[in-house]
Amino acid sequence: MIFRKVRYCSAFLLAWVAILVIVLASSTAWAQDARLLEGRASPALVQEFFSDADRFEPSEGTPSYTRVFRGQEQIGYLFSTLDVVRARGYSSRPFDAIIGMDMAGQLTGARVIRHHDPYLRGFPDRVQRLGDFLDAHIEYPVDEATPAPLPPDFVQGTTVSARNMRAGIMDAGRVIMRINDPRPLITEPTLNRLDYGFLDWDQLLEMGAVSDELISFGDIREAFSKAGVTPTDLDIPFERARSDSDRYTELVVALVTPALIGRNVIRASDFGEFVEPAPDDVVMLAVMSGGYYDFLGTQYRSAESDHKFDRLQLVQGDLAIDFFEKDFQRVGQTVQRAGGPMLRNSGLFTIALSSGFDPLAPFEIRYFVQAVDAAGVEHTVQFPVSYQLPEQAVLMPYVEPLPPWAEAWLESGLELGILAAALTVLTLIFVFQQQLARNRQLHRWLRPAFLTFTLVWLGWIAGGQLSIVHIVNYVRGPFDGADLGFYLAEPLIVVISLYVLLSLFLIGRGVFCGWLCPFGALQELTSKIARFVRLPVWNPSQQQQRWMWLPKYGLAAVIIGAAFVAPEALAAVEEVEPFKTAIISAFTRPWPYVTYAVVLLVIGLFTERFFCRFLCPLGGVLALGDRLHVFEFLKRRPECGVGGCHLCELSCPVKAIERSGKIVMAECFQCLDCQVEYHDDHRCPPLAKTRKQRERAAGTSVQKPLVLSPNGATAPADA
After folding, report:
1. pLDDT of the residue at 123
2. Is-contact 611 548, C-beta < 8 A?
3. 710 lies in some domain
4. Three-class secondary structure assignment of 1-45
5. Any idea what the Cα angle at residue 391 is, between residues 385 and 394, rounded to 5°?
6. 586 and 487 assigned to the same domain
7. 359 and 474 assigned to the same domain
8. Are 412 and 389 found together in one domain?
9. Region Disordered: what ranges (predicted)?
């Protein structure tokens, strides 16, 4: 009776803590986290980001950032994620990273100076790897859509924080760039008319900024021959060619409206006089030719032909554009190409966008080569010159990167597949648990095998250890303004949590605690080794055990309460769980943490699952939820407990069966040992008696089974 009152008091205490949490959380001011950049960025850190900086100028307005100067020249920006985007880390609370960025939007450095990730605190190796991870992004543009230099799982054990911190740093950088970009926001692909950088001729060709079509005497001979004209009958100076590969004519075309192309293709003065002043509703096409034939011809001078250039035509899909003298402007200097022949004729054509021409789409210039035969008949062949504006000359609209949670799910396909297969197997185990329990040998091998998988793959390899940390994050998230992405940040934990939540309200806490907890699996497997070498076993009495069950509820209440009333102490109190030491870091933490975890495991060698039963705060939360489970699949008989049989009680490794025979489901780990005994007609007294009667009726010799008595001795089942 007293025990029941204590249990209800524990539940009431937890509910009171939850109410207190809501009140305190609603009054928590975010402003306590926000501090000015001054004082947070040390001189050494600033010097590391900008080695040649000598002056700093704080910005005005919001968000706050600092302009960095070398003399009178601004060389970059210094800012903080906390000031600019308030990006959230693992615990849903904002982290603070100081960032340096140059004027081109490339990172010069990033350092996390404050965070709330329990999987980073106490892990100096992870902190170092996080620094290396961020350093790998130096000179990486914040608006880059290409893969990052290093994947987030480079920081093993805290991938979520690495992913969120990288995203927050990049987001903050993009905000600062947008604030300081005088150009309007780009909403669709647009010509980049302003940006410039020097490019030589080879670089222009390589990037596709110019298209250069060289037409040899051999090409002319072949083209006219295919047209049914004898080339030697034409007024083409074949006699001047030393070989068919010699140049007859050459055509170069380039869209020169983008400064990156125009200022490298035509003379700067021509660009400034003709291209820069041009309105936004036109583009300028540069055409140049050399050799024995040019693109000019003579027809453009004739009014009879409307001053049309008869040797050129622009074609884009179904659109054909002719060129006229009114749209043409000679440029005074031709392009100089190192080691190449001169292009003696050059000019600019103005193309109105109202014509339907799309400068961002591919097009071709048809170059018509004309020749006259001996009879005075003109013949024409054409050579297409294809052109596609290079992406370097196009401003693309900003494409929001995948949110960190979506990136995590895309990268976790293999792990999710393995987990799905494992959960399918576990589901089948519970669906067919009675059939499994009838086969003692199969159960004896299947359970340790699954626990080994849980420990090695789910725990040590995949890091899928559900923890009170996750419960705290889930509970605190709504008060911290966490969005859906926060809850989806860890794909494996999300799937495990949903599976555990469903199974908790269907059949109880044992599905997780008994089968899916890596640390629990480690305890049970080491305990099996202890039983194999016959180490002594100590179990508290039933009355003692009832009191020993209580600390886990108190620890759960303290940890959840601390998350709201003393968040700075949360990391310390969460260390009551040895999961980070034994599972997440595989015993690679400093010696006090390792010693604590090892001590718990050593105690577990003598008292089965000591930590799980008496100290685990996550187990306390799940045990409270267990009281709401719907189905009871563990079978009992009238003879169990009060009927005089205590076989299941004695065989239960965690002593979750009372003397009365009742299973305390809130403390049951669903190991199915009792069900194996339940179905064993050589150990279960009621079944043994029935089998004996059946065998006697059939005239079969009866061998009396041996069973465990309450004092641990063996006795015949019908004694």
Report:
1. 77
2. no
3. no
4. CHHHHHHHHHHHHHHHHHHHHHHHHHCCCHHHCCCCCCCCCCHHH
5. 105
6. yes
7. no
8. no
9. 694-719
- The conformation of residue 104, written as its DSSP 8-state character, comes to T
23, part of any domain: no
What is residue 35's predicted lDDT score, i.e. its pLDDT? 41
Q: Name the packing angle between helices 413-431 and 440-453 (round to 10°).
A: 160
Structure tokens at 376: 């005075």
SS (H, E, C) 254-319: EECCCHHHHHHHCCHHHHHHHHCCCCCCEEEEEEEEEECCCCCCCHHHCHHHCCEEEEEEEEECCE
Q: What domain range includes position 494?
A: 404-677
| pLDDT at residue number 44 | 80
If asked whether residues 208 and 134 sit together in one domain, one would say no
At 224-256, the pLDDT tens digits run 989 888 877 788 888 888 888 999 999 999 999
The 8-class DSSP code of residue 581 comes to I
**What pLDDT sits at residue 39?**
63
> Are 427 and 472 found together in one domain?
yes
Last residue of a domain, one of 371, 395, 419: 395
Longest dimension (CA), the chain: 130
- Please report whether residue 304 resides in a domain: yes
- Give the end of a domain, one of 179, 212, 246: 179
Residues 385 and 531: their CA atoms lie apart, in Å, by: 83
Residues of the chain with pLDDT under 70: 1-39, 144-150, 153, 332-340, 643, 700-719
Same domain, 386 and 410: no
pLDDT score, position 21: 44
CA distances from 212 to 207, 288, 342 (A): 12, 9, 13
Distance CA(255)–CA(210), nearest Å, equals: 8
pLDDT at 36: 43
Alpha-carbon distances of 368 from 250, 403, 484, 620, rounded to whole Å: 12, 53, 62, 85
Is 22 a domain residue?
A: no
**Residue written as tokens 């799905």?**
420
Cβ atoms 654, 669 nearer than 8 A: yes
Q: What is the pLDDT of residue 711?
A: 43
Going from the C-alpha of 379 to that of each of 219, 231, 313, the distances in angstroms are 15, 10, 17
pLDDT of amino acid 707: 52
Indicate whether 93 and 110 sit together in one domain: yes
**Helix-, strand-, coil-residue percentages of the chain, each rounded to 5:** 45, 15, 35
Distance CA 65, CA 125 (A): 31
| Alpha-carbon distances of 219 from 203, 213, 369, rounded to whole Å | 26, 11, 11
* Number of domains forming the structure of the chain: 3
Determine the Cα–Cα distance for residues 26 and 324; give it in Å rounded to an integer: 72
Instruction: Give the rounded distance of the alpha carbon of 563 from its chain centre.
Output: 26
Helices (H) and strands (E) in the chain, counts: 28, 18
The pTM assigned to this predicted structure is 0.74
β-strand partners of 371:
379
Q: Are 190 and 257 in contact (CB under 8 A)?
A: no
